[in-house]
Amino acid sequence: MDTTPIFEPPLPSDRKQLRRIMRQRRRSLTPAQQALAARRLKQQLQNDPLFLRARSVALYLANDGEIDPSEIAEFIWQQRKRCFLPVLHPVLENQLWFYEYTPQTQLRQNRFRIWEPDIRQQPRRPAWALSLVLFPLVAFDDEGGRLGMGGGFYDRTFAFIRHGKPLRPRLVGLAHDFQRVDSLDKQPWDIPLDAVATDRKIYRFKARRDA
Fold first, then answer.
1. What kind and span of H or E run contains 34?
2. Is 0.85 topped by the overall pTM?
3. pLDDT tens by residue, 15-71
């Protein structure tokens, strides 16, 4: 079963239009296609050096047709690594905290109706202290550019990377392979990725890998 949409019209360069089209394509996948993509994604990541070396891994709970990393979370627990989820910062606008995620974690919906840990019960870790962060994204290109949902949460949270902080996590986007585009307009606040893992392959970006 293939997860690639049958009809693929030319993609617009406008970020808002591209975001709308890609979100629609993600949501058009059947549950069986999503489950297959999730299994293939885990197979791509589970033996990758970036993943194997990481002791603390942040990921997300799938929403709006995003490729689902829940099997990766289960593998993290099996490997005795620590798993974290993003939580909307209660004070700083459009920024994230990261709280530990275990099979016993109680979840609640935030204002976007996305499930996140109940922060009263779980340990928190600063963004710079994570080993690996698995990002959701709407589209990506071959230079490590990432188009998100437009809120800038990840770009603001990881802005310290642009300032040359010595300690930083590796950043890997997760996506369906059809979310890859030829080129994205870069913005000065964009945080480039080290790699993107899809249901078909891992795309590595030399500029980030050599940093």
1. helix 31-45
2. yes
3. 889 999 999 999 999 999 999 999 999 999 999 999 999 999 999 999 999 999 999
CA distance 59 to 185: 25
- Please report, for residues 47, 146, 175, 190, the alpha-carbon distance to residue 185 in angstroms, rounded to integers and kept in the order given: 32, 9, 19, 10
Residues 6+ apart with CB under 8 A from 3: 29, 33, 34, 36, 37, 176, 177, 178, 199
Q: Domain extents for the chain?
A: 15-209
Are 26 and 66 in contact by the 8 Å Cβ rule? The answer is yes
Its CATH class, for the domain covering 15-209, is alpha beta
Closest CA to 122 of 109, 137, 106, 138: 106
- Are the beta carbons of 62 and 68 closer than 8 angstroms? yes
Contact 176, 198 (CB under 8 A): yes
